[in-house]
Amino acid sequence: MAEPIIVGVDGSPAATAAVAWAADDAARKGKPLRLVHAVHRPPYGSRPYPIPGLDDALSRAGGQFLREAEEIVRERHPLLDVSARLLEGAPARMLLREAEGASELVVGSRGRGGFAGMLLGSVSGGLPGHTAVPVVVVRPGRTAADATEVVVGVDESEGCEPALGYAFEQALLRRGRLRAVYGWRPPPEIYTGYFVYDPEEARQLRQVLDVGRIAAWRARFPEVRAEVEVVCDHPVSALVDVAASAAVLVVGSRGRSGIAAMVLGSVSRGVLHHAHCPVAVVSS
Q1: Average pLDDT over residues 130-145
Q2: Global pTM?
Q3: Can you tell me the distance from the alpha carbon of 244 to that of 247, in angstroms, rounded to the nearest whole number?
């Protein structure tokens, strides 16, 4: 059986957007889609004022969320293999458990339990970097239906290879262009007046990435038109700006400057907080 795509469901606008994104991706890849809602019931001992009927109400609401999500999927892709699971437990833990046998995990940027001013919720923020499968975080109302361009963050390390593989596959399935972006942060000396920006250095760096990092993927995906861009800016700012209207922005879980003990690198975390398009974090 094909490994399914898992999508978290909670009835929020962000989760609804995630369901639509996951359904489209499952249809493109020919994968089954599994809708998951986790009912989190605190232990009775931790409830100072138990509410009669709360547990049944939570289960009924979860079932309703799943039915509404399935209707969205059926409307978009009537022939898609879709199933639903109502689980009990902490949402992040349940989603990570479901992802163990999956090909991809998709979640909304912020669920019903988040604060209105937060761009990233506790569940979506806690999943990337904790599973071996790609995690896609989707914001509501931010993705153009006809967007085909895929943006991927690159550097000189081999840690970006899994992200490149995922990005090239997305570009192929969408029949879109791929832009591999390297955010080049200038040294502190630039602010003292002792550093002069040399365009030739950026050109040489682009050539190194184009030949040493992208060429092999071009050979594997000859149908994909791939370009390399070196942007003189902080990597997070460079990626967010270039991917403003992208179908998806792909980053690795850790970059070349990551410490081995860190689960999620600063660039991938920064992109998750600031990018408006869907972001896919691929385990390095």
Answers
A1: 83
A2: 0.85
A3: 9
